[in-house]
Amino acid sequence: MESLRVLHDAGIEKKLSEKFGLDQFFAKRLLKGDYTPERGALFSRLMKESREGHLCIEESNPPAFPPHLVEEGKGLEVSSPVIRNGGRFYLHKNWIYETYLLQEIQRLLTTPPPVICDEQSFLDALKKENLLPKQTLAIKNALKQRISLICGGPGTGKTYTAASFVRSLLASGNKTLRIFLTAPTGKAASHLHLAIGSEKCQAMTLHRLLNVQPGKNRKEQKIIDADLLIIDEASMLDAPLFFKTLESMGEGTRLLLMGDPDQLPPIEAGSVFREMSELFGSQLDVSMRVENQTLHSLASDIHRGQMPSEILLPFPQDLTWELLKKLDPILAYEEPDPVMCLKKLDAFRIVNALRVGPFGCDTINEALFLALASRIAIGQWWAIPIMVTRNTPSLDLYNGSSGVLIGKSRGGIRLQEGIAYFPEKVLFKDLPPFEIAFCLSIHKSQGSEFQSVLALFPMGSEFFGKEALYTAVTRAKKSVEIMAEHQVVEKMMVKRSQRTTGFSARFV
């Protein structure tokens, strides 16, 4: 069915572009009198690939272009709409992003950081930490370099390693240390702060720290005045957000990035963390969690391209009813405990490769809500999982914050009669925009972990590579099931969700 080809969050835009030739239209408009079919084809392909998250395209035999349209890129001082670098072509903005990131990262790697502790006191404190050799090496790199990476899958001790680094710094005698803990999502930032457990560290989302709001005009430049900035879930950093982060760093700030380079790339442009991890990241590869060795092995198998056949389930005829049974949603005559409801959300969650379409998150969430509304009796209480979709610092809620909306039925389910808990209580009238979240997109589930996960990969998920499977599996702490047709998973396993960039090739 044509509707099943609407594949991901940008699927509608992609479909419109293909149907109406918008990329070709803008290519003709940009080229004007210099248009030829060959030039138009390259420009339209460049715009299409850029929209899908690639920083550049590679072309071995391109047509000739006049210099006012395409110039050879040698630095940040460029003026043409398209930049060429060898066999790679960039839109102007993407060239600026990649070039600035390269220049800043290379500068940070070669500039000695300021002294922030007594080194011997730091090393004495570090010896008291229970660390593996690779964790110790990662910490020493973070002390000696202005930018460093701690990379690894779930359970490999990334957060514990960062916490050991912070504890050793605090124990070394510097009473004026300024440390910021942050992540692209509020949940990941809070988790990092809880794990490190020091009141001397400030925790917030990266957007709040940088004073930026997605979708709004750029605000006044904010300089991060800190000795150490730690960013968790750094695989979610796209090129524009990482650009803003480096641009905002103070002269004496160390940057420590943590994440899993094998997860899905960011929704927006680039996949810089993955490339940096291969170039100079500290790799942690030993799972520290005894209870999830099976999941660790499964994730490793997927990364190596081995089919997860033993956990595949076929799609049932009545998907809504099957999902309701697994969710066991709350419909009760006694008022539910919000804490218990939130724990229930962390115990089991459905994730989905597709956002839109007949089997996407939006459709499934609506179907589950309507099914509950049709079953509830007057006087029964209901509890609906929700996810905030806009940053609201005044309530300490951010895009991706998960909560539960609880109310009592007076006939069906009226969300506006509910009260939200995150676990802090928020009246409905004060809630920022949100969406029902029985089912999360795999992209939005990044930064979260649940005890058990059911991952849906409907027909159309083959657009994604094996990173989507890997990311879904690594959201689970204890168990995971994959609902998908065998041929869909088979196609995903031979594909990678890679972004085309020149970052690694230009890195010297």
Short description:
The protein is of the alpha/beta class and 508 residues long. The protein has helices at 11-20, 22-31, 37-51, 92-110, 119-127, 133-144, 158-170, 186-196, 206-210, 239-248, 272-280, 293-303, 319-327, 338-347, 361-375, 442-445, 466-473, 486-493, 503-506, and strands at residues 57-58, 70-72, 82-85, 88-91, 147-151, 179-183, 201-205, 228-231, 254-259, 282-283, 312-313, 331-332, 348-352, 381-388, 402-408, 419-421, 425-427, 434-436, 439-441, 450-457, 476-484. It is globular and about 70 Å long.
Largest sheet: 6 strands, parallel
Helix content: 25-40%
pLDDT < 50 stretches: 1-17
Q: Figure out the total of helices.
A: 19
Basic shape: globular
Please provide the count of β strands: 21
The side-by-side strand order for the widest beta sheet comes to 7-6-8-9-5-10
Structural class comes to: alpha/beta
Average pLDDT reading: 87
Based on CA atoms alone, the radius of gyration comes out at 24 Å
Indicate the proportion of strand residues.
Answer: 15-25%
**N-end to C-end Cα span:** 48 Å
